[in-house]
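Changelog-linked ticket: FE2/S2 (inorganic) cluster example.
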Amino acid sequence: MTRISKSPISITILPMNEISCVSQSATILEALLELKVEIDHSCGGNGSCGTCRVFVEAGLEKLDFRNEVEAEIAHDRGFSDNERLSCQTQVKDQIAVRIPKKLAKG
Ligand code: FES
């Protein structure tokens, strides 16, 4: 049996401008968590909270279109074209993503 290995893909994380390699076909959220990047993901990656959104600054054309779950949240919340739910979007090629600033509390 031949085993097909998927080569790692580089992802640039902004605003830190950090470049790392992640597994192909991981979701952006899985990749960011693996890299210990602090990102909200209140629903645990189920596509229901919208807190894991990122802005894809490069490579948007290399990503799949939004799935049904993401499309509904994107529509309801008025996401811009490059605003994606990281838990619903797979890394398939080199991309750069910007992590939104957290809103100051209190
Ligand atoms: S973690 Fe909740 S929508 Fe992605």
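Closing comment: Example verified and attached. DSSP finds two helices and five strands in the chain. Residues 68-77 form the longest helix (10 residues).
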